[in-house]
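Lab notebook page, bench 4
Experiment: in silico fold of construct C2
Operator: M.H.
Input chain length: 237 residues
Purpose: comparison with the prior construct
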Amino acid sequence: MFCHFEDVLNSAKHMQKSTNTDHLNENFRNFLARFDSLVHAVALIHKTRTTECYLIDTTYPEQWMHHYIANSYQNIDPVIATARHKFMPYDWTEIKIRNASQMKMMQEFQKIGFKSGYAVPLHISPSMLLLFAMASHKKEINFHDRTILQISINQYHARYLQLNTTDSFKEELSLSDKERECLLWIAQGKNTTEIGSILNMSENTVKYHLKNIMQKLGSHNRTQAVVQAINLGLIHP
């Protein structure tokens, strides 16, 4: 737990010095490790398209994440749904459960020990939000902790924008028409075989284009490439 405000500033400085998104995520994880029983997820979500949600980083239990993805909970998650019309941070008590599926998801999450949550939505572009979602085994995430979290989240947000939307990077980076088409279909959840069929090209050609895309964007996987391309305005799913 933080004893002095100086600790918070030092953590913010580490994030400001992050050289890429992976490094930024690592520094943010180190910051959160000082809190007891706190896990988090950072995701890029579209404000109106409910199926567009791209995970950037998480410390949620691996078993839960497998279950979450297998059941497509990102499409119904009330924490995400609330972010689309909220302009301020909010906790679980402010979330509206609108149907049985949402209730089931939240009950399952609580059954594995999480009793409270806190979320912070921040704008990346007119259509995209960067959502920070925290969950705790404690009955509440108190005002003191939320205030400290907000400082760090704001620093993450600022550095994330600096790393992913610099003008110089945009000017130097370009995608071919085929690369952009492949990436747009990846954003729609299509696999290599499906993209090849849609674009009338072989799977190896699709893989070639995707490999080039990830090299250009400095991404480690396809999802990260989609997130990066959206941030840079290279694609508009």
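Observations: The two ends are 41 Å apart (CA to CA). Residues 90 and 119 are 5 Å apart (CA to CA).
Next step: discuss at group meeting.
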